[in-house]
Design brief:
The complex is a heterodimer.
Chain A lengths: L5 E12 L2 E12 L3 E5 L6 H8 L7 E6 L4 H4 L3 E4 L13 H6 L11 H13 L15 H13 L5 E5 L7 H14 L4 E6 L4 E3 L4 E8 L6 E6 L1 E3 L4 E4 L11 H6 L1
Parallel strand pairs in A: 3-7, 3-9, 5-6, 6-7
Antiparallel strand pairs in A: 1-2, 1-4, 8-12, 9-10, 11-12
Helix pairs in contact in A: 4-5
Chain B lengths: L1 H11 L4 H26 L3 H23 L8 H22 L4 H22 L6 H6 L7 H30 L1 H6 L4 H23 L1 H16 L5 H26 L3 H27 L2
Helix pairs in contact in B: 1-2, 1-11, 2-7, 2-9, 2-10, 2-11, 3-4, 3-5, 3-9, 3-10, 4-5, 4-9, 7-9, 9-10, 10-11, 10-12, 11-12
Classes of the chains: A alpha/beta, B mainly alpha.
Amino acid sequence: MKDIPIALKFSDVSFSYPHLDVLCDVSFHFHSGEFIALVGPNGSGKTTLLKLILGLEEPSGGTIELLGQMPKRSRTLVGYVPQHASYDPSFPISVREVVRMGLVDRRLRRTDRADEAVLKALSHVEMESLADRPYSELSGGQRRRVLVARALVGGPAMLILDEPTANMDRDSERRLYETLATLKGDVTILIVTHDMRTVSALVDRVFCIDALKTEYGARTVIQHPLVDIDDGTKRVLHEMEIPADQCWQEVQRG
Amino acid sequence: MDNLISFFHALISPDFPFVRNAFVAGALSSVLFGLLGSVVTVKRIASLAGAISHAVLGGIGLALYLSATGIVPNLSPMAGAIVFALLSALLIGTASLKSKQREDTVIQAIWAVGMSIGVLFMAKTPGYSDPSSYLFGNILLIGTQDLWLLLILDVAVIALIWRYYAQIEATAFDEEFAQVRGIPTQAVFLAILAVTAIAVVLLQTFVGIVMVIAMLTLPAGTAGFGAKNLATMMAVSTLYSFVYSTAGLAAGWALDAPVGAMVVVIAGLFYLSMLLANVLKKRRRRP
């Protein structure tokens, strides 16, 4: 793994809100092309960690490198798929326009090439036939796939999905992971989820934000091994621990 | 009917320039109401715009008092209104960005305190000044210079929205995503508030505070029922604003009633009818 560039690196990161310690001594990294899951129960600090990765919050201590730079500089290289839970159903916008939003910082936003890129991203998630449909008329699963297309349209180096399968039916979940399977290897993928037990079979490594680090409730990130199970998913072995800053391949080599 | 016909005669007659000015002001205001109203609606900041437009009364009252007592001679009410509008926009914007849980309290406080300051200063101003004339305004008193000011603001707002449409749309639809894409969402929000504040001042001087807040929300809300995107919403909302202001002007002339209040009633009735039709349509669709 040494030859492959590091996509994300946390070094001794801590973070506190006023009167609340959230993260302490967080150190982990993963490489370009890996498919990573970050798991943790609700309230464990996943959202805070995500905000730090995206440069929406600054750490109280330590450093974060995203794609070799400070997150605020490199975050435009990230395709971000938020939960978008506070979505306004009365907002007048079509599927095509939502996806075009992914090009908002690019000059090609209003060109034919932009239209091509939008349709290509939509075809990636099998939604091109619904390009002109109002976004509010889609099901929850379809909306999430449109947000994946929006994240893909700018050709990201890394894809970050926050609770990608929350409130999704089985069929939509399967379709989403089929899309992610086609991207695996070309794009670094990080999914953040509260499901602690199992992760998709696509996942290479899992980080868990659960271990209490201080008596005041701050948590840190550890790594667990994964084991394949029959239903096409992987089980997280919480009983075994790997230092979070160590690659799985390095662990196997001893 | 005769009264309506006499309105159209007055509109083209050189003897009634104030009617023609009012008609042109309605058309020019429609652009601001349509564009800014749509942004205010999709950003869900109508209450913020409401607070700014009402707080403006404080600036007007203060300016009238300072001018009438000779402390600051010839200070125009509009100058006081602009200061209060920008100050309240800054206060509300900062409260909204920094302490979300207290946003409502700050909005209501600025709304109520601004109006009360206005009423107090007007009461102490030598001579007669009626707060209700600022609440409802009088579109028939608009002069040519005012029309030029409106036109300049129209051009400025069209240019800003043309240039920053994508950024405005993205921040209104999904603020967190917009921020990740590198859009300065807080600056966009404060800019929207500041431009709205300036437009509110200019518009309320002509048409009154109540009509400003009604026209910033009702035409855009009505347009939102059928619009496919924000641009269509802006265009349809502008058209609705023009129709309402012209209909209100004609009805006000025909019935010898205050034009501002007439425009608000027409816009409100149309919005409620569309809302009802929309609810019934959705019910019919349900199995």
